[in-house]
Amino acid sequence: MIKKYLLLVFLCFGVQFYPRDLHPKISDTLQSKSYDYLFERIEAAAEDKFKQAYYLRYFLSKANSEGNSEEIINGYKNYLHYAPDKLKLIYADSMIYAARRSKDNALIGSAYLSKGIVYYGQKKHKYALDNYLIADNYISKTGDKYLIFKVKYNIGNIKYYLGFYDEAISLFMECRDFFKEKNGRAYLNSLHLLGLCYNKIGNFGLCSEINSKGLEEGRRLENNEMRDYFIHSEGINEYFKNNYGTAIQKINQSLPSLNKNKDFGNISVGYFYIGKSYWALGKPEMALAYFMKVDRIFDDKQYIRPDLRENYELIIKYYKSKKDLSKQLFYIEKLLKADSVLDNNFRYLSNRVRKVYDTNILVKEKKEIEDSFNRRKHNDLIFTAITVLLFLIVLFMAYRHIRNKKIYRQNFEEAMKQNGYAPKVEARNGHNGIDDIHKDTVAGILKQLEKFERNQKFLEKDLTSIKLAAVFKSNPKYLSKIIYHFRGKKFTNYIADLKIDYIISILKEDPKVRKYSNRALAEEAGFSSTQRFAQAFFAKAGCPTSYFIKELNKISE
């Protein structure tokens, strides 16, 4: 702690150590200079820390003496950029303090956004999200499109980390289009994250296209800052295309740059996929060396994400093959610790991003619609049209109610005829086949699926193809293709139908369960929300839960 504040004093007052005979000369020269000029001097003096410290202090001192709130904040931002990691949050807090005194929403939002970015760089995603949400609250009031898209980009990062890939893709595509002509680095960053998302959803061809586009655009913009990140991304993509040698070569090529940037998150991911590549090549000892590097980063930084969890499963598998019980136990405990960190981080982040950010967007859209109606409420023609429309809607609702009762009854009778889940279907033909998967792999996964269904493991909450593939020691692409081929459904529908079939069976068998609320039934089946349960039940049974239970009770009377 003492060293921390000594370094802060040095950065703020490093000018005292700068040769005194140069102070008057520099000060006289700088008096008439603009902030842009001072900023250029700060950047140019990056190799001379004493000189840079003087320019940093002069910039902030000038802004304070002129009472220029925006430049005061920029002054602290300059310090933040050049400070060591352990001091960045101190300068971020100074930015926020100065911004709040200015009462300017754009400045306050930008300051909180900067603090969130510092936390994200440290992989402290909880605190990053909290600051992004505060920033969004202020920035959304300003109409400043550049800041609004900066928030979108950073929320997209969180959604990517959480596994909401489709939503992240939508945000990154917006950011890519907005930043393309406005900020080259932000544009390249958006492309890079798009590529990572496409990899995660299994579109490896499009991921490669994005990575090639990123390298090409970097050359066009004469910006090489993201070059090695696109190479790193493509190396991981090559692993998923089973090109293990190429994956190792590309990831290794990118690591020096990532080490220079102290990007331990991407370094850890790189080590993991190099290890996985060696493992796939039948070289477990070489793989283990890289898995241990991932473990050291977890020990040092507490950095883990869902795909890195397999790192410990493979280490445990290695020591099991060596019959080393003590090492097995040690890494089982490590895996439990990693699960605890994942569970804690993901539950918090998911709830916050859904309840705060996504809800705010809906509220904003609702307000825009309401404002639109309010502006036109005095128009007699529109009022008349709306009145007629409402009358037609009422008629339609009445008709639909009568029709739905008939449809619901038919669907209910059909559901009552079904006895349990009948998962086996005829294999599908065409381009959605499984010709590219070894028959032994197919047989193994089918056997595990039958056990998974028999033991009702589908009741687990927040089950994803990534998690289940990890349990099956397979990959999400193969698992999803086999489920689609033999069960006739996409993964999400397959799991949802299993859960609903289970709920229907216990509703038939146990009258007590019929008294459960939708929320309780959703919890029983392992749905992440009541709404998702209600939607899945309707899709499967063809009628609402309340109607289904009502008809069951009639039969029992």
From TrEMBL:
SMART domains: HTH_ARAC, TPR. It comes from the Bacteria. One of its GO terms (molecular function) is DNA-binding transcription factor activity. Keywords: Coiled coil, Membrane, Transmembrane, Transmembrane helix. Residues 459-551 form the HTH araC/xylS-type domain. Residues 442-469 form a coiled coil. This is Tetratricopeptide repeat protein. InterPro entries: HTH_AraC, TPR-like_helical_dom_sf, TPR_rpt. The chain crosses the membrane at residues 381-399. It comes from Flavobacterium hydrocarbonoxydans. The lineage of its organism: Bacteria, Pseudomonadati, Bacteroidota, Flavobacteriia, Flavobacteriales.
